[in-house]
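Page 37, continued from 36.
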């Protein structure tokens, strides 16, 4: 029997990776190495989060507020107050990783988040028009992104263990491997440029995962990748030919700004302009995608 660490490393890099099985195996390794805090994170991913304060940043998704129009179906609602928009449209998902995977596997461009009755009543009061229903639509891409963050976290962890010679031959760890593992600060880097620190320290009331955004740097390469994702999403939208052509022209200008490495505030303003245009065009899935991607880019 070979190394359980390398076995896990191999499994998490497979295209058809079973994320639930990966986390169960990671749970086994963490328990054998007595890595209590890292194991807490794994357990939360497997079983879901019970405390908002411990939900990692990568589980935050932002959707688009919509109202049911009796003639045009679900239409975008403009929210001018940023704090109000965040309160309505931003969520840190508590769901277990298996539930997240089930949501991601649905063959849909977006997922629906129903608002509580109190929010429905307030929104109807604010709108001042005939009573209607409101909901938040989440990009399916943003949901799938959570799975990738978890995979990368496990992969980085196994790579660190391997670097330190902690392999777990025959599914067993010797005393030297356990001692070295306890001294390793388990740090991985997510796509947002934030660090997720899982520290092997005595148990206390601190969150399992602590984010640090102070070292965030803008990535022109990542911006180019996002522009490509936006174009792909646009091509799947059922909007008028005129609106589609206008949006593609705006996106081409954004790509040019990225290739010329213009100032980040210029690129951000261009993306916001495209998002606002697409709200009017009814391209809800692409609007949600832009909102989700901008959170991590700037």
């Amino acid at each position: 029997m070979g190394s359980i660490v390398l076995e896990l490393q191999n499994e998490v890099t497979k295209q058809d990776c079973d994320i639930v099985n990966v986390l169960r195996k990671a749970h086994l390794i963490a328990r054998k190495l007595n890595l209590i805090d890292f194991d807490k994170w794994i357990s939360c991913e497997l079983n879901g989060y019970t405390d908002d304060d411990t939900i990692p940043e990568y589980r935050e998704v932002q959707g688009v507020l919509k109202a049911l129009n009796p003639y045009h179906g679900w239409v975008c609602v403009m929210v001018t107050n940023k704090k109000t928009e965040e309160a309505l449209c931003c969520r840190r998902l508590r769901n277990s990783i298996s539930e997240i995977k089930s949501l991601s596997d649905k063959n849909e461009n977006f997922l629906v988040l129903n608002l509580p009755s109190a929010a429905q009543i307030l929104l109807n009061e604010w709108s001042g028009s005939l009573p209607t229903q409101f909901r938040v639509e989440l990009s399916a891409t943003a949901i799938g992104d959570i799975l990738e963050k978890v995979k990368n976290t496990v992969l980085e962890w196994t790579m660190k263990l391997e670097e330190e010679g902690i392999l777990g031959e025959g599914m067993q760890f010797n005393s030297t491997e356990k001692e070295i593992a306890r001294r390793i600060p388990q740090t991985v880097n997510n796509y947002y440029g934030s660090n997720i620190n899982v520290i092997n320290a005595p148990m206390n009331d601190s969150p399992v995962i602590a984010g640090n955004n102070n070292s965030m740097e803008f990535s022109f390469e990542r911006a180019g990748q996002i522009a490509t994702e936006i174009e792909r999403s646009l091509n799947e939208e059922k909007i008028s030919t005129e609106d589609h052509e206008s949006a593609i022209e705006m996106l081409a200008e954004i790509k040019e700004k990225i290739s010329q490495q213009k100032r980040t505030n210029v690129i951000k303003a261009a993306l916001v302009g495209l998002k606002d245009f697409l709200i009017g065009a009814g391209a809800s899935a692409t609007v949600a995608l832009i909102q989700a991607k901008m959170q991590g880019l700037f």
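The longest strand covers residues 64-69. Flag for discussion at group meeting. The radius of gyration is 22 Å.
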